[in-house]
């Protein structure tokens, strides 16, 4: 037998803090996703409205959309490292 301490359950406050942190993480991820969606919708409007000049006129929106896509993912609160 080992002389290790028995496992203690986390307190109610600790559980509450963990749940709030998880919810905040999910909420902030969704905000990023929605920002990217709004920029994409504006980019589509720009492409349709500008016609043949959309490459020059819509370039700032396209650049912004690509930047937002890099971290516009809802990952959840768990991270599993497979490597």
**Class from helix and strand fractions:** mainly alpha
Radius of gyration: 22 Å
Euclidean distance between termini CA atoms? 34 Å
Strand content: under 5%
Q: Please tally the β strands and state the result.
A: 0
Largest sheet: none
Q: How many alpha or pi helices? A: 3
Contiguous uncertain segments of 5+ residues: none
Average pLDDT value? 86
Order of helices and strands: HHH
Overall spatial form: rod-shaped
Percent helix: 55-70%
Organism: Ceraceosorus guamensis
Main location: mitochondrion
Keywords: Electron transport, Membrane, Mitochondrion, Mitochondrion inner membrane, Respiratory chain, Transport, Ubiquinone
Membrane topology: Peripheral membrane protein
Architecture blueprint of SSEs:
Layout: H1 12-50, H2 54-57, H3 59-69
Helix pairs in contact: 1-3
